[in-house]
Amino acid sequence: CGVFGMYSPQPLDLAWLTYLGIFALQHRGQEAAGMAVSDGDKFHVEKDLGLVTQVFDERRLDSVRLANARVSIGHVRYSTTGSNLRFNAQPLTTRTNKGILGLAHNGNFVNAREVRNMMLMEGALFATTNDSEVMLNLIARESHMDLVEATASAMQQLQGGYACVLMSRTALIGFRDPNGVRPLVIGQRDGPDGAYVIASEPCALFAVGARLLRDVMPGELVWVDRDGLHSLMVHPGQPTPCSFEWIYFARSDSRLDGVDTHESRIRMGEQLAREFPVDADIVVPVPDSGMGAAIGYARESGIPFDYGLYKNPFAGRTFLAPTQEARDLKVKMKLSPTSAVRGKRVVLIDDSIVRGTTSRQIVNLLREAGASEVHFRVSSPPIKHPCFYGIDTAARKELVASTHSVEEIRELIGADSLSFISERGLREAVGGPGLCLACFNGEYPAGTPLLNDVDKLA
Ligand code: 5GP
Ligand code: SF4
Ligand code: MG
């Protein structure tokens, strides 16, 4: 998912700016979009299934627009639970003694079910199956605390990987899990309003004319009100941001925790070329996710980069389609080989192999188009474990690398050779502090759900 929030000391068209912000985060979720806007008195919310441009036509955008808007949040969702339901769209809202609150959440709480059960026994009510609602209810029920204290207290009770924005009528809050698994950045607009922006990635700041101030730190809570920007370190932890943000998820023009995604993808490709060289004629990326690594592979190996696969720019991200059948059809909608591959030994570069189904189809497309050899190079290690922190890398039984060796996967996808970057190589390519690599090595830095909760492990 992608989250976005703004606070402006002067009236601004926050409905429009929030639209631009979540549109810049569309790659983080395509199932639902929503926003909430307040002027200190009124509090408007609109959300629905669909892309940002589908949910917010002019009429819908007008219905959240407020002449004196000061605070807003927005969300793009992709469900990690598979439930593509309208009532799970965000922002979530609730009425409390602190006034109405809105929450937009990226990530997963690993102990949400236990906390929810405890709250149910104490009489709490839940309207959705969304674990974000547990966070919102926890904040809402601390009626004796102010909003910042209540949010900090909720952060202490829920574990996992998360980044959230929360708004009241008069303040904007952003907070990030103690490991900083999910990204969150702060920006500010130049010019007279000096509005603050909190978002999943810097591209959303730039989209609304703000510059990057800094990343929210792991375990930090920041809030903006009429007195400006404030910070509270709630729960300092060992930073282990999600490596998949750099491998695949974040946009190529984003810089997260001081590491540029495009540059790190190029280093992954260079590393792959050193670890797994091959005699070949051209290097071809699977667009767009294999682009950076293919540039790196070509540079390091000296094999020319070529445009071997056309990508229909009107197709979305394949994996975000919720069912296998939908994903299969979407591959053909999306990709088609060019004449560059005819008679060529191709090094095909992609960011990841999850189920293997897309990869098999792509190898097949290249062969049909006359490629003489296809050598598959992957800029992430084999994905063997489920993600409990908000990236839908599928249930374990669907992860081809959890049940197949590299050689078996090679045979399955029909490649002449297949290699995955090493875990050490990936670490070096990203650099920076620690990294979550749990979906590769099963070491979960921010905890796991109780075993009997985990249908994903089945
Ligand atoms: P596969 O061959 O595993 O079906 O698909 C691999 C390609 O699709 C990669 O380009 C990867 O970016 C994308 N992909 C497919 N399914 C998923 C998924 O469930 N999660 C993620 N993160 N990426 C996926
Ligand atoms: Fe990212 Fe994988 Fe960790 Fe999930 S398990 S947070 S996808 S590195
Ligand atoms: Mg891809």
UniProtKB/TrEMBL annotation:
Gene3D superfamilies cross-referenced by the UniProt entry: 3.40.50.2020, Glutamine Phosphoribosylpyrophosphate, subunit 1, domain 1
Catalytic activity: 5-phospho-beta-D-ribosylamine + L-glutamate + diphosphate = 5-phospho-alpha-D-ribose 1-diphosphate + L-glutamine + H2O
Limits of the Glutamine amidotransferase type-2 domain: 1-227
Residues that bind Mg(2+): S289, D350, D351
Pathway(s): Purine metabolism; IMP biosynthesis via de novo pathway; N(1)-(5-phospho-D-ribosyl)glycinamide from 5-phospho-alpha-D-ribose 1-diphosphate: step 1/2
The enzyme's E.C. designation: 2.4.2.14
Keywords: 4Fe-4S, Glutamine amidotransferase, Glycosyltransferase, Iron, Iron-sulfur, Magnesium, Metal-binding, Purine biosynthesis, Transferase
GO-annotated biological processes: 'de novo' IMP biosynthetic process; purine nucleobase biosynthetic process
Domain of life of the native organism: Bacteria
GO MF annotations in UniProt: 4 iron, 4 sulfur cluster binding; amidophosphoribosyltransferase activity; magnesium ion binding
Residue spans crossing the bilayer: none
Pfam hit, one: GATase_7
Cofactor requirements of the protein: Mg(2+); [4Fe-4S] cluster
Binding positions for [4Fe-4S] cluster per the UniProt entry: C242, C387, C436, C439
Active-site residues from the entry: C1
InterPro entries linked: GATase_2_dom, Ntn_hydrolases_N, PRTase-like, PRTase_dom, PurF, PurF_N
Co-factor binding comment: Binds 1 Mg(2+) ion per subunit. Binds 1 [4Fe-4S] cluster per subunit.
PANTHER family registered for this protein in UniProt: AMIDOPHOSPHORIBOSYLTRANSFERASE (PTHR11907)
Assigned protein family: In the C-terminal section; belongs to the purine/pyrimidine phosphoribosyltransferase family.
Known function: Catalyzes the formation of phosphoribosylamine from phosphoribosylpyrophosphate (PRPP) and glutamine.
Protein name (Swiss-Prot/TrEMBL): Amidophosphoribosyltransferase
Organism: Deinococcus irradiatisoli
